[in-house]
Amino acid sequence: MDERLVELVLRAVDLIPPGRVAAYGDLGRIVGIGPRQVGAVMSRYGDGSTWWRVTRASGGFSPDLLERARPHWLEEGIALRSNGRGCRIEEHRADLEQLERQWRAGVADLAPGDRAPRPEPRGSRPRPRRAGSRGSGR
């Protein structure tokens, strides 16, 4: 796995404040990758981080991780959902704009080429031309 990518993700994780969580997709949007890539980094390299602050979009974990996260959540005041299968992410989600600003400042020491590419918003990419096309014909 790309060491730079690991560093970018783990720096974002380290910035999630105590008592707050972010979903894999939230971090993916900040770093410029997909939620599964964030999950892959966390599964291989996340043990030394505050991994319990990174959840599924629903605020949950797999059952084994949930049991490991529970003491951390109790210590940080992260409330469990009534069914006990995760946190109430809508109440505990980190301020994502602030997190992104802090992350950008936190990765400023990396060379510009070391940053993961920012995804373009949907619909912002020009459509590819069809073979033989000379323009829009307007």
UniProtKB/TrEMBL annotation:
Basic residues bias (residue ranges): 124-138
Q: Does the keyword NADP apply?
A: no
Cite the InterPro entries for this sequence: ATL_DNA_repair, MethylDNA_cys_MeTrfase_DNA-bd, MethylDNA_cys_MeTrfase_DNAb, WH-like_DNA-bd_sf
**Which GO BP annotation is one of this protein's?**
DNA repair
**Region annotated Disordered, chain positions:** 106-138
**In what residue span(s) does the Methylated-DNA-[protein]-cysteine S-methyltransferase DNA binding domain sit?**
8-63
Q: Which key words tag this protein in UniProt?
A: DNA damage
Pfam families given in the database record:
DNA_binding_1 (PF01035)
Q: Which domain of life is it from?
A: Bacteria
Q: What is this protein called?
A: Methylated-DNA-[protein]-cysteine S-methyltransferase DNA binding domain-containing protein
Write down the species. uncultured Nocardioides sp
